[in-house]
Automatic annotation (TrEMBL):
It comes from Saccharopolyspora aridisoli. It comes from the Bacteria. GO terms for molecular function: heme binding; iron ion binding; monooxygenase activity; oxidoreductase activity, acting on paired donors, with incorporation or reduction of molecular oxygen. PANTHER family: CYTOCHROME P450 YJIB-RELATED (PTHR46696:SF1), P450, PUTATIVE (EUROFUNG)-RELATED (PTHR46696). This is Cytochrome P450. Signal peptide: none annotated. Belongs to the cytochrome P450 family. The lineage of its organism: Bacteria, Bacillati, Actinomycetota, Actinomycetes, Pseudonocardiales. Residues 392-413 are annotated as: Disordered.
């Protein structure tokens, strides 16, 4: 790229994004950036300007199709930016219909029952590494737990759940463009169509919006990705903060743990989705006094807007005015936010309850972050702790009856499969 656009891809940005936002902000509330090699975009860093864009769907539509025709196949940002017929990429009446169905289905989730499931699953994950006295809490805990929560609320039977988790992890790792996830979700939707249950997929299929099979598949695939990658980062970023930040890292075994406060702080200062909320103006528009070209992506820097000095005053604890969950018509639906907060808090509390003498295994400055323009995601979170006494969990002793399948193109037999078998007692 010939102009002086700041790169949001690559290790320099990942190492200290707030330094980049501070520098860009000096030139105004929007900045020209590059989100992948030769892919220009505009980043909105001002809090007021972010709200202006997010609350004006007429001037800032979500449909990326004209832009995406100009982007090379295989471009690393396409899996998260290319059009899909789901509520995230649609506008107007179609968006309202799809979002209404998703929101109503999520609102029926029993968060108390979900919390119990989450604690049991969290315990099973912790049991697995606890005897070692060390773990990578990103890889061995935060990365998988939210996916297990999503497959639970979707009522996925174990084999399909396994396929969904493998497909979603492959999508997050850029190994696959989401086709593996779509195939597994289509299988789940077909199963629920013939045998409904008390779960989000069945509620979505029965919704008065009358979703087609494909619409249902697309909305559920969105829940599997939108509902898990940010949650994994929320859990890991909150654990990191509690372990390394002097304001929070006290006596973690002290009893009254400030987990909810740490969660709020992360949502302000290290939001799991740092830059996203992509919109594609169809003609040149002005944002913060700067022209934004037509058919080029405009990204909201949720992380930059949250730390905009114009709003960065006063306490953050209990203050939900941050933009971590977006704003406007495409904001993260309230029932999804409720699930996210409950899951984030319970997942962190479970680790601290089980491993009270947890400490970081490397200095804070040695922790590495994954590169990429969108997420704020630790590459790993190594910790150590005195191994706790082993606990017997009778519920793990009765594996669910499952039909085993041979690995196929969409059924990789990786580490997750091995873990999943173990979780089921196999
Ligand atoms: C820490 C966790 C989460 C964060 C930080 C987060 C953040 C966001 C943000 C910023 C958006 C707006 C994106 C945009 O404007 O383009 C969004 C949308 C969405 N989120 Fe979340 N989210 C989280 C968890 C979840 C969960 C658990 C679910 C579902 C189980 C979920 C479902 C959705 C859906 C369906 C949308 C699209 C809404 C629409 O386009 O109308 N999210 N989320």
């Amino acid at each position: 790229m010939t102009d002086d656009r700041t790169r949001l891809h690559g290790p320099e940005f990942a190492a200290d994004p707030q330094a980049v936002y501070r520098r860009l902000r000096q030139a105004g509330p929007t900045a020209p950036v590059e989100i992948a090699p030769d892919v220009p975009a505009t980043l909105v860093l001002g809090y007021a300007e972010a709200l202006q864009v997010l609350r004006d769907p007429a001037n800032f539509p979500k449909d990326p199709r004209t832009w995406q025709r100009t982007v090379a196949q295989g471009c690393p940002v396409l899996p998260l930016m290319a059009y899909r017929p789901n509520c995230l990429f649609t506008d107007g009446a179609t968006h309202a219909r799809l979002r209404g169905a998703v929101t109503d289905a999520l609102a029926r989730v029993d968060t108390r029952e979900l919390r119990t499931h989450l604690e049991e699953t969290g315990d099973a994950l912790i049991d697995r590494f606890a005897p070692d006295g060390k773990a990578d809490l990103m890889e061995q805990y935060a990365r998988v737990l939210p996916l297990l929560v999503v497959t639970r609320i979707c009522g996925a039977p174990p084999v399909i759940s396994e396929e969904i988790v493998s497909g979603a992890l492959a999508l997050f790792d850029g190994v696959d463009d989401g086709r593996g996830l779509d195939t597994a979700v289509a299988e789940l939707v077909a199963a629920k169509r013939s045998r409904p249950g008390p779960d989000v997929v069945s509620w979505l299929l029965a919704h008065q919006a009358g979703l087609t099979e494909d619409e249902a598949v697309q909305q559920i695939a969105l829940l599997c990705s939108a509902g898990s990658e940010p949650l994994q980062n929320l859990i890991a970023n909150t654990l990191r903060l509690l372990l390394v930040d002097e304001r929070f890292a006290g006596d973690l075994s002290g009893g009254s743990l400030p987990v909810a406060d740490a969660l709020d702080e992360v949502l302000w200062s290290d939001p799991p989705i740092a830059n996203y909320g992509t919109v594609f103006p169809t003609r040149e528009v002005q944002v913060g006094g700067n022209p934004v070209p037509a058919d080029q992506p405009l990204l909201i820097s949720f992380a930059g807007a949250n730390t905009d000095p114009a709003v960065d005053a006063g306490g953050r604890v209990g203050n939900r005015a941050h933009l971590a969950f977006g704003a406007g018509r495409h904001a993260c639906p309230s029932p999804a936010q409720r699930i996210a907060r409950m899951t984030g808090t319970a997942a962190v509390e479970r680790v601290l309850d089980r491993l009270p003498d947890l400490e970081p295994a490397v200095p804070a400055e040695a922790l590495e972050w994954k590169s990429g323009p969108f997420h704020r995601s630790l590459a790993s979170l190594p910790v150590r702790f005195p191994p706790p006494p082993q606990q017997i969990r009778p519920w793990l002793g009765s594996p669910a009856p499952v039909v085993r399948r041979e690995p196929g193109p969409n059924r990789p037999a990786g580490r997750w499969t091995a873990f999943s078998r173990w979780l089921r007692g196999g």
